[in-house]
Amino acid sequence: MDTDLPYVDEHSVLVPAPAMAVWRSLAAVMTRSPAGSSAAMGLLLATEPRRAGGTPFEVGSTITGFAVTSAVPGRLVELTGRHRFSRYRLVMTLAEQSGGTLLSARSYAEFPGPHGFVYRQLVIGTGGHRLVVAALLRSVRRHARKNSAGAGNPDQG
Question: Which of 6, 31, 126, 143 is in the most buried spot, having the most CB atoms within 10 Å?
């Protein structure tokens, strides 16, 4: 589904933790939401899927606004969705390397019609999307550092 969407951007962060720890942190961060905020956003934008369900990051499970369409634990998760103004795909990849795991988020989307054009300008054109994705990656890094510290990881930084 939606594999033909136009490329939007890619962002990466080096997380000083093994890939499976980063995977667990990514799942934890992406499935938590401040008291009802994702449900409210889902309702406002009429996201599909509307709510979270299933085991995080298993194919067929959902996060508000996203369905898991592909998953290789510790390596890749592909999320797709749509709402009133866009169809989109987010591909998260994890690659172990010296110093930890490189976590990358690649976004693809189309914004059909005049309302989609305006929405794209508001979200992509203002840099809002870039800020949200960067914040997500930083949250995953913080979560992984915190949870790896308890496991005796010397890279607590």
Answer: 143
Kindly list the strands in the beta sheet with 62-63, ordered across the sheet, starting from the edge strand earlier in the chain: 7-15, 100-110, 86-97, 76-83, 66-72, 62-63
Whether residue 47 lies inside any domain: the answer is yes
Question: What CATH number has the domain bearing residue 81?
Answer: 3.30.530.20
Q: Is the peptide bond before 49 cis (omega within 30 degrees of 0)?
A: yes
Q: Domain of residue 80: give its range.
A: 7-149
Domain count along the chain: 1
User: CA torsion, points 120, 125, 129, 135, in degrees to nearest 10?
Assistant: -170
Residue 155 is assigned to a structural domain of this protein: no
1 assigned to some structural domain: no
> 42: which 2 tokens?
């889902």
Could you tell me the CA-to-CA distances from 6 to 96, 111, 112, 139 in Å, in that order?
Answer: 27, 10, 12, 26
Neighbours of 24 (CB within 10 A): 21
Q: Whose CA is closest to 21, among 142, 137, 152, 144?
A: 144
